[in-house]
Amino acid sequence: MLKTRPSSDGESPLRDPWSGLWGSVVPDMKSLSMFRVELPSQNGKQETHAFAYSSLSRWLCRKTDETEEVEIHLGKQVVKVQGRGLGKLIDAMDEGRLKLIRTCPAQMNQATPWITRIEISVEQPVKGVP
After folding, report:
1. What is the mean pLDDT of residues 34-48?
2. pLDDT (mean) for 36-48
């Protein structure tokens, strides 16, 4: 069965238990070489960025009572992901199984990740460090 993009009403037509409105993970332990980040549509244009796992240098997770933020460093680029349940994304990323992430219109349930914001920026050099 073909996988299609989630509908705008928040219901996901995806039947794969490893996928949802937030993105998808490869269910087996084979590693992927790249993962994709889909940014929210702006001015009718959809942007998808692909990153090589080999460029992943580190990640940082910050948590408060209300939200979680994961900062992923890929070469000179930084992907900041905000939401809840992001530990599942970190686990999948550590195993090289994270395939796609994107924002979700609403939290579907507590068992799945909920991504409220994704931001991609260029890492700024630290002053005094060449």
Report:
1. 88
2. 87
Q: Print the domain residue range for 83.
A: 26-122
pLDDT for the residue numbered 17 = 60
SS3 call for 69? strand
Residue 62 forms part of a structural domain: yes
Once rounded to an integer, what is the mean pLDDT over residues 112-127?
85
Q: Is the confidence at residue 3, as pLDDT, over 70?
A: no
Map residue 48 onto helix, strand or coil. Answer: strand
Q: What's the total number of domains in the chain?
A: 1
Comparing C-alpha atoms, which of 45, 25, 27 is closest to residue 35? Answer: 25
| Whole-Å CA distances, 101 to 12, 106, 124, 127, 128 | 14, 15, 24, 32, 35
The residue among 76, 87, 74, 95 whose CA lies nearest residue 31 is 95
> Within the chain, what is the greatest distance between any pair of CA atoms?
55
Q: 11 in a domain, yes or no? A: no
Residue pair 15/81 in contact (Cβ under 8 Å)? The answer is no
